[in-house]
UniProtKB/TrEMBL annotation:
The keyword Acetylation applies. Keywords: Acetylation, DNA-binding, Isopeptide bond, Metal-binding, Nucleus, Phosphoprotein, Ubl conjugation, Zinc, Zinc-finger. SMART domains: BAH, ELM2, SANT, ZnF_GATA. GO terms for cellular component: NuRD complex. InterPro entries: BAH_dom, BAH_sf, ELM2_dom, Homeodomain-like_sf, MIER/MTA, MTA1_R1, SANT/Myb, SANT_dom. It is found in: Nucleus. This is Metastasis associated 1 family, member 2. Gene3D superfamilies: 2.30.30.490, 4.10.1240.50, Homeodomain-like. GO terms for molecular function: chromatin binding; histone deacetylase binding; sequence-specific DNA binding; transcription coactivator activity; transcription corepressor activity; zinc ion binding. Residues 263-315 form the SANT domain. Belongs to the metastasis-associated protein family. Residues 412-437, 648-667 are annotated as: Disordered.
Amino acid sequence: MAANMYRVGDYVYFENSSSNPYLVRRIEELNKTANGNVEAKVVCLFRRRDISSSLNSLADSNAREFEEESKQPGVSEQQRHQLKHRELFLSRQFESLPATHIRGKCSVTLLNETDILSQYLEKEDCFFYSLVFDPVQKTLLADQGEIRVGCKYQAEIPDRLAEGESDNRNQQKMEMKVWDPDNPLTDRQIDQFLVVARAVGTFARALDCSSSIRQPSLHMSAAAASRDITLFHAMDTLQRNGYDLAKAMSTLVPQGGPVLCRDEMEEWSASEAMLFEEALEKYGKDFNDIRQDFLPWKSLASIVQFYYMWKTTDRYIQQKRLKAAEADSKLKQVYIPTYTKPNPNQIISVGSKPGMNGAGFQKGLTCESCHTTQSAQWYAWGPPNMQCRLCASCWIYWKKYGGLKTPTQLEGAARGTTEPHSRGHLSRPEAQSLSPYTTSANRAKLLAKNRQTFLLQTTKLTRLARRMCRDLLQPRRAARRPYAPINANAIKAECSIRLPKAAKTPLKIHPLVRLPLATIVKDLVAQAPLKPKTPRGTKTPINRNQLTQNRGLGGIMVKRAYETMAGAGVPFSANGRPLASGIRSGSQPAAKRQKLNPADAPNPVVFVATKDTRALRKALTHLEMRRAARRPNLPLKVKPPLIAVRPPVPLSAPSHPASTNEPIVLE
């Protein structure tokens, strides 16, 4: 009965998914909704699987520093792996969850230097935290409420001075004496002097214009003058004047007028006090966040002093009564029965009714965590195509602690122990990329979706530091250790020191001997001799029938006849051009468009022009070439006068050399 009773302040497990681990939350409020259900306002705590890999690296470095400072005993790799499952990260994020999703209690404590980490593994449902996670800013910070216990926080008490031994310490750095209990004044005289100090403070407030506006009545001014700040000033005055009442009286009222002493309660305005109450309601007694988000113009000491003075006012007493009345109206505890429904991930044994994930699992598979083959009950774990399963004890461990008992290959054992992520921690593409059933091509496609392109652009100072501080940077050593941090600030500081000296020293210029041009030409001729020109033959006329011969792929300007194109079965449109592949004629049946595979594409066709073809290009006019290009499927009609090659046009010749009718013999 007591185990199923949950109260405000308890750390509990919440289940939001049948396959994911439990959520660890702390109950802040228990509210009853209008339809009779109970909702719990909880504080979120995050696991390592809930934060990014960079923050996991930061948490690892913090854990190593804690082990070195607290001198923790050595643990095995499996224990270190399980300790990461016991670490949580506190946050200030609140959420409301149904109370019926509670699945049990757990214990969460702040990690202390006196704690031994291995003790957390010996206790069930026991967690610890030392860092605070901000889900919005994605940062990890040390908890401000850390208790400073340990040898380094203890005061070092010096030895007592012997009689007659002088104190050689710097007295200016030591404490200053502000009150002597063995003074010559009696208690009655001290009380009378304090009454005089209050009266002077009341009179000073009456003379001050700003104080008369804040405390318009005499009673308020007298109450403000009776605060501790006035009494402290009066006692300090007695101490400075050697407990001489006459001198102390004259100090209270100097020549310029009475001394006015104000505390933080008087310095703060009403709007600033309202902001403080609003911040206190949101952040509690976290004065750093109150100053950062609400009162940045106030100092931290001023906020702390105002808080303790504010607790003595009637405003604090009224808010305390309202909170107590509101707490009485809310639920103090709620009873949640034990959850006994079967999990959908449960694998039904052979012969029973098949469940959600029970069908299709192979026999003989072992547990992914403890590698056992015998268990009273099995549970499906990971992606469905992986056919992975966990035994009953490992399934409970997975649900409570968010990991497996032993590090597996999928959790990062093959990549090292720095990133202990199981397949439950990974997204579906990442988990499939680690699958042994996934090919390398598909694995590359899956991982390519999560990659992001980034550019690193160096500054001039960085490029200078690479050359001038090569002994500090050690680029070859840094390249072999890409994940080791480099102290860039030290390198920049050293570069700024060496840069003025390097500017004064002249650069060493190595003269380069250049060979003369004649020598370079002789070397090139000796390496690659030039080919001799072939002698030209006699001038022979062009065979006119040669252009109409079928040369296959030899000529680029040879036009195919209309009969040849029609015989090939290529359909033509009304203007003589062939129909495109996407347009069909009336007699052509409709065919489904298919995407061509690049592997099935035809080989590229290369046209090699002959001398006759090149001569024909020169013989044709520009207008005839354009007309032939616009109608590539029609045969080209070549007239005999155009077979010959025209001579080069001189500067004085007309712009249209085609007007001549004299045939020219081709060389």
